[in-house]
Amino acid sequence: MELGASTAWWVAAGLAVALELATGTFYLLMLALGLAAGALASHAGLAVPAQLVVAAAAGSAAVLAWRWRRPAQQGGRSPQADPGVNIDIGQRVSVPAWSGHTARVSYRGAAWSVRYAGSDEPAPGEFVILALEANTLVVERADRVTHS
User: Fold this and answer.
1) DSSP character at residue 106
2) What is the pLDDT of residues 22-61, one digit of tens each?
3) Is the pTM of this model over 0.90?
4) For residues 125 and 94, is the Cβ–Cβ distance under 8 A?
5) 99: helix, strand or coil
6) Nearest to residue 52, comparing CAs of 33, 31, 35, 30?
7) Spatial CA neighbour of 140 closest among 123, 124, 132, 128
8) Radius of gyration in angstroms for the set of CA atoms belonging to the chain, rounded to a whole number
9) Residue 136 Cα distances to 35, 104, 130, 141, angstroms
10) Helix, strand, coil % (nearest 5) of the chain?
11) How large is the greatest C-alpha to C-alpha distance in the chain, in angstroms?
12) Residues near 14 by Cβ (< 8 Å), separated by ≥ 6?
């Protein structure tokens, strides 16, 4: 049994998908799209150089599109400030006293260090957790935080 060019393209695309499943590298799926485009070009009867051009163009376009789309999706948030990563982001905490821009509070049954994110002098009261930096809660006054 002889393998045609389209079969080789499909096998390569399948290997790229399998490798993506093993590694979690989403860019391999974009490259698999390029390989699938090469297979479709083969089915359309294009010559091998044209198949290579189609595969390279489709794969490159998919990688660039994914790369362009990804930062917009994350909204520029760091993992420490992403509520999708950390459930504490956006929660309220009461700070009874400040020592400069730091304090100690009881939150979820444990003592935490707190750092005030603002530049003015903080006053005791209700704050919202903006980020977690190691075991320090970065907070902002609750009346200044807008919900998105």
Assistant:
1) E
2) 887 888 999 999 999 999 999 999 999 999 999 999 999 9
3) no
4) yes
5) strand
6) 35
7) 128
8) 26
9) 47, 9, 11, 16
10) 45, 20, 30
11) 79
12) 32
